[in-house]
Amino acid sequence: TQLLEQSPQFLSIQEGENLTVYCNSSSVFSSLQWYRQEPGEGPVLLVTVVTGGEVKKLKRLTFQFGDARKDSSLHITAAQPGDTGLYLCAGGSNYKLTFGKGTLLTVNP
Amino acid sequence: DTGVSQDPRHKITKRGQNVTFRCDPISEHNRLYWYRQTLGQGPEFLTYFQNEAQLEKSRLLSDRFSAERPKGSFSTLEIQRTEQGDSAMYLCASSPGTQNYGYTFGSGTRLTVV
Questions:
Q1: Which residues are A68's β-sheet partners?
Q2: Per-residue pLDDT tens over the stretch B27-71
Q3: Is the Cβ pair A31, B105 closer than 8 Å?
Q4: Closest by CA position to A61, among listed A77, A38, A44
Q5: Secondary structure of residue A81 in the 3-state scheme
Q6: Cα–Cα dist A19/B108, whole Å
């Protein structure tokens, strides 16, 4: 069974601060995806990374896939209250995604 | 395209009753997935369809659960003889069938068994 560990589980910061959340596994994934989920809604895809060492930027969000394709990080610069939500990483192999438990981020104004 | 639609959004049922949820995927997506999410957890895989064929079922899906996708379009998930432990958010997602593409999720159906 492929498991994804996300850390920290909870993170509460002030508006304007930077933060990094992590996603780690002992398994190799063909791709890794990050989603953001708001209460009562389904997850929304932020990014897919497929190549070891790959870095992708989406405005203030920077995603990195580890060289061995077993881990990933999400860095947010100058966090805003609108960034509040549950950040989920998901590892892909063939057709199925395995999700971590998520990092619940709260950005206080 | 209105994305993935799920109906109903909320369902409260008494223990022992049967419930059925519907999912309408993005029309050009041939893969459809059902996941279950409980509080404090990430989504857990339940089952997967490629067109109308159900290709995998998780061990989480007991014999009280059944899913269909007639004609490869919409899908239904039925839970028979509901139990309190079935209370969860049931999420449907679709994808175009390339493994490196992400899923598009619906808003989910929140089931509460009382």
A1: none
A2: 989 999 999 999 989 999 999 999 999 998 888 888 999 999 998
A3: no
A4: A77
A5: helix
A6: 29
